[in-house]
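dumping this here before i forget
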Amino acid sequence: AENLYGISDPLISDEMKAKDRFSVPDAPEQPIVKNVTKDSALVTWNRPHDGGKPITKYILEKKETMSKRWAKVTQEPIYPDTQFRVPDLLEGCEYEFRVAAENEIGIGDPSPPSKPIFAKDPIVKPSPPINPEAVDKTKSSVDLSWQPPRHDGGGKIIGYLVEFQKVGDEQWKKANFTADSCPDTKYNVTGLTEGTKYKFRVMAVNAAGESEPAYVRDPVEVKDRFEPPELILDANMAREQHIKAGTTLRLSAVIKGIPFPK
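structure:
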């Protein structure tokens, strides 16, 4: 500083480093992957801080999780969209994705990798089982049988849920509580009341959930099933048997009937 008496001693500031007030864009947040199929995936991300200069494009990369090499998913510029459907994935392979933003200063740091995904078609709920029917019954149980659903929804059928309802009631009751307790296309519903009519329905289950129910066509009255006694001779026996008087004749036959004849 200077006045009429002269100039003061100089005041020296702390050192400062000159730098550009503009910079490359910040790294985006972790991208999100959705709508995955066996050969494509939709990757979305949020727009990062642009560093003071407008973002001109995004660089989206992919890699298989067991690899260390990142590769661009397209040579075409991605902008202004903050999402891109990545094509040409290999079915069954596991992938990660990351994205970086670029402005006129340069390319910013890449985002953290996305959560890994497998390239496969999504699993949906299966179609209902086919043709459920009551194939046998006693005074306290009913045997049900059906065929697998036409469409498994893209996932393994874990099993089936069976429900029953007294005719006239509104509430359906569960015959089994977990699908894996009925892995086959048949089930024996027990604990029923003799003389009561019941409705039955069956649902197929995969990882996506339960199918719509398939219904046994007609209500079933719970009671013992009766069949008259029947004697069926062995077809290999001769039609005529000649024996001496006083000897024993032994016949080979199948005896049928419900309850079994005494």
